[in-house]
Design brief:
about 170 residues; alpha+beta; Peptide Deformylase; 5-stranded antiparallel β-sheet; about 30% strand; globular; binds zinc ion
Length: about 170
């Protein structure tokens, strides 16, 4: 089982790599990967009090796999984003790989995501909820080796966030 100490942190070269698609033949491995992602996200939540999603490469699993846990756990395999709205929104983004840093970024307000679930079923998910849309764009970026630091809107688009007191 992977733990917080296994999380790749800002500057790790693997965070800048493009991930490989998950193959159908690799499905038996997905449950183990998801268990690791779930566990590390729970540890992050306990320590930093944030975390709704995590991408496999953040644990050095260089696969196109995202784990979301907002109201319920959700496994997203080989996502494609289409129909990104022209309408953009700005926010202070955060990332488990640099939990004390906030970055001002601009994201599409709406999108549609095509992906496979852990049973290899294909889904088309129209995401109109802004908070979910920006989260999906953040996690999807990880699969292409893109961090929100690389999307900062200007040179001053960074803020320090202290670790919450236990
Ligand atoms: Zn992140």
């Amino acid at each position: 089982m992977k733990h917080l100490a296994d999380l790749l942190l800002l500057g790790d070269p693997r965070l800048y790599e493009t991930c490989e698609p998950v193959l159908e033949s690799e499905l038996p491995l997905v449950a183990g990967w998801v268990a690791d992602l779930h566990n590390v996200m729970e540890e992050i939540r306990a320590k930093y009090q944030f975390g709704r999603g995590i991408a496999a490469p953040q644990l050095g699993i260089m696969k196109r796999l995202i784990y979301l846990n907002i109201d319920r756990p959700q496994v997203v395999i080989n996502p494609e984003l289409i129909a990104l709205s022209d309408d953009m929104n700005e926010l202070w983004d955060d990332c488990m790989s640099f939990p004390n840093l906030l970055v001002r970024v601009r994201r599409h307000r709406k999108l549609t995501m095509i992906y496979r679930d852990e049973n290899w079923q294909t889904h088309t998910w129209e995401v109109n909820d802004w908070a979910l849309s920006e989260l999906i764009q953040h996690e999807y970026d990880h699969l292409n080796g893109v961090l929100c630091t690389m999307r900062a809107i200007d040179e001053q688009a960074f803020r320090w966030r202290p670790t919450p007191n236990p």
